[in-house]
Amino acid sequence: METITQKNTLKDKVISEFESSKNSLFGNTLLREQAMESFYKQGIPSRKHEEYKYLNIDLILKGDFSLALNKTLDRKQIAHLEILNDAYVITIENGVFIEELSKLQDLPKGLIICSLAKASKDHSSVFEKQYAQSADVNADAFIALNTAMAKDGVFVHVQRNTLIEKPIYIIHVSSAIQNSIINPRNLIVVESNAQVKIIESYETVDSTAKVFNNALTEIVVEESAVVDHYKIQDENNFGYLLNTTQIIQKGKSVFTTHTFTLSGSLVRNNLNIVLDDEGIESNLNGLYLTNENQVVDNHTLVDHRKPKCNSNELYKGIIDGKSTATFNGKIFVRKDAQKTNAFQSNKNILLSDDGTINTKPQLEIYADDVKCSHGTSTGKLDEEKVFYLRARGLSETSAKKLLMHAFASEVVDTIKIDALRDYVEEKISKRFE
Questions:
Q1: Residue 292, in any domain of the structure
Q2: Which residues contact 71 (CB under 8 A, 6 or more apart)?
């Protein structure tokens, strides 16, 4: 097992690992070589990069890191992670699809689920058309790194006119026993008139090592398709997650995504949605709870390219301890995107004097017949409301807990899967305690 050390730069060590393994990796070797070249040119972002100025990634990636990881888990170790009894379950360990730990029996007609390595051979027509097409390796160093180094992941293909009644539940598990860099990759293609619910969770199991998870999911939503997408991020104090989700939508499709960040030493979410046809609806909901020295950084980009589309974005944060949260939301309305409706809101509560929130809503509008708005607010719990509740018999702790639940519920209530909503509410209750 090769280990990355700081004798040379991290970039050089990644190059060395890539050269020794590229011929054994799935997919197009030329594409991987182009991605690695782009990664080498861009380098690991530092605080000098505008998009990463609140993250000290250089500091995180100092030390020894392994890129070659072995399978170690058994079903007993991950049983507690399966929060839905009635779902198609996909287990990804250290970036690798583990079929024997997944539950994919009796898949309905019109649904294909397999590893990316298998998809590149057995479903090559769809794979080659969609893989690495929307995630631009020149747009971000971590997209380039993932495209070059991804060893496996999951391929989900929902064929046209197919209604998938049970949720598809993708569990990403980090089980490293030494400091590691993992590059999980997902490709999800939902064809025209299809409907599906997809859950992604990020968990750490039995690990006291520093794990840097550089995850990338591409989602293609074709004409008139409906997709509900959920991300549950709960990687404890040893988890470092950089999660990029790249979505492209076609005409009259509806895509709704929900991001719940519950723990993790550092979590960076890059959520990029391209509305590439008319009559599209996009909904982005997010809730982040931070404590101690945790860092959570949400960057969203909604790119309106065509007319008569709607986007709605609501992100809320509760910041405690010495933690830092960032929300940077961009909305582009291009020249041809007339009659666009685009709305964005970011609201935050600071529970401590040492917590920090950086919030930056952005609008770039190049069309003239549009309705767009954005807004942000940050403050502490309303003391008058606390006093009101205490006057009716609640303790100060109970009163504050009730108000925080009410604040978070606007996002939590958007969850359409009952068991998942109950799970998130339980997790939030434990955090508030």
A1: no
A2: 93, 94, 96, 98
Which residue, 70, 17, 66, is CA-closest to 39? 17
State the average pLDDT over residues 331-359.
Answer: 95
In 276-309 the beta strands, taken as DSSP E runs, fall at 281-290, 295-304
CA distances from 66 to 75, 210, 271, 309, 397 (A): 24, 10, 27, 45, 44
Give me the mean pLDDT over the 185-194 stretch: 98
Span 22-48, average pLDDT:
91
- Phi and psi for 406 in degrees, rounded to 5? -65, -40
- Tell me: pLDDT of 6 over 50: no
Average confidence (pLDDT) over 85-99: 92
Whether residues 402 and 267 share a domain: the answer is: no
Give mean pLDDT, residues 225-251.
92
Confirm whether 320 is domain-assigned: no
Question: Would you place residue 8 in the very low, low, confident or very high pLDDT band (cuts 50, 70, 90)?
Answer: low
Within 305-393, strands assigned E span: 310-319, 324-333, 340-350, 356-365, 370-379
- Residue bearing tokens 């993708």: 170
Query: Does residue 273 sit in the same domain as residue 385?
Result: no
pLDDT digits (tens, 9 = 90+) for 259-292: 999 988 899 999 999 999 999 999 999 999 999 9
Q: Does residue 131 form part of some domain?
A: yes
Determine the structural domain holding residue 59 and report its residue range: 3-277
Residue type, 162: T
* CA 327/CA 85 separation, integer angstroms: 34
pLDDT of amino acid 107: 96
Taking alpha carbons only, the member of 242, 114, 243, 131 closest to residue 168 is 114
Q: Is the pLDDT of residue 139 over 60?
A: yes
Tokens of 305: 């390219």
Among the listed residues 109, 87, 91, the one whose alpha carbon sits nearest the alpha carbon of residue 100: 91
Count of domains observed in the chain? 2
The overall average pLDDT reported for the chain is: 91
Domain end position, chosen among 223, 243, 277: 277
CA distances from 209 to 41, 149, 342, 405 (A): 29, 21, 42, 33
Look at residues 242, 277, 312 and tell me which one is the last residue of a structural domain.
Answer: 277
Residue carrying the six token digits 């939590």: 412
288 inside domain: no
